[in-house]
Amino acid sequence: MPDRFAMGIHVNMLALAVLALIALNIRRRPDREDYVQKTYWAMVMANTVMILIDIAVDTLNGRDGEALRSLHIGVETAEYALIPLVGMIWTTYVEQRIDRYGKISKMKLALIAAPFAINFAIVIMNLGRGFMFSIDEMNVYSRGEFFWINVVISYIYLVYSFVRIVKNRDSIRRSDYRSLLIFPLLPFLGGILQSLFYGVTLIWTSTAFSLLIVFVNVQNDQLNRDHLTGLYNRRQLDGYLTRHISSAERERLLGGVMIDVDGFKDINDKYGHVEGDKALEYIGEILIRSFRREDFVARYAGDEFMVLSKVEDYGDLERIVGRLKESMDSFNKSNYLPYRISVSVGYDILDKDIYKTSEEFVKHVDKLMYEQKRRIT
């Protein structure tokens, strides 16, 4: 076997090791309703399949025997047909990240699948014609004049997803944004090198490392977030406040909003804890949609939440709280739940000369929140 193909197999084995590392660290199968996690898992599996196909192609190339030649044609056809698969799944993943809740319409899924279907049809048409690739009588693979069709269709997905990420950066978590931007760059470069240097296999290895970057980011993000609502957890809240208090920044003020769900115990008692958890998830969704991307939104404890927002003055903070109340009213009008979701809030500007620790400021806005709750009950 030529050295370049041996090198290709070694590179692919490295990529398989990376994907195996990811798979071993995913402790359970994706939940039925966790669309984003299911899509990520599908990317890992699709990349693994493509690497195995690539290894099979390299192994079969140039081997004597009509049966091996027929097998080579079949495997090569499968490879060309499936090359855009990872790009298609990645584009779906990006759309789910933009939505934040992982659900996209069937129409959008059909549009995402269209380039893949076109490529599949073209590859089938290639059989017996060889305009994309051919296998000669010696069972040796060679590119056809129009092999680049496959590459262009694959890059359509990468370019489209990159543009979507940049255009919708305000809808994507800041921690997710960086890894989403990086992901298409490595396969893009790997694909270019693979197209320019015949026999060098890099695209699936680069894709595997991109998946690893996304996985590490997701794992780190899970440590920083509340499992139920997806908001930041209390540890991150304390850290954010502590860093702000100890910093020298005084140009922009930091406003804090403490939020408590009204009648949450009644929801649990009357409708059960499962419905109570759903109510907390609804609150998380409302908070995400009410506040700005740069605002820090966290679940403080139980049915209490806290938002930290850089503001110009106290009036700016009041307007932010007003947006929350409007979002809450809109949610209740458009969702026919057996109960009404409402909250009590306490808010103030953090004065570094008064509040020396995060605990002192949290206690202050918590007190303001309970004062409001007593006034309305």
UniProtKB/TrEMBL annotation:
Residues 252-377 form the GGDEF domain. Keywords: Membrane, Nucleotidyltransferase, Transferase, Transmembrane, Transmembrane helix. It holds the Pfam family GGDEF. Its EC number is 2.7.7.65. The chain crosses the membrane at residues 6-27, 39-57, 77-95, 107-127, 147-166, 178-196. PANTHER family: DIGUANYLATE CYCLASE DGCM-RELATED (PTHR45138:SF9), REGULATORY COMPONENTS OF SENSORY TRANSDUCTION SYSTEM (PTHR45138). This is Putative diguanylate cyclase YcdT. The lineage of its organism: Bacteria, Bacillati, Bacillota, Tissierellia, Tissierellales. The gene is ycdT_1.
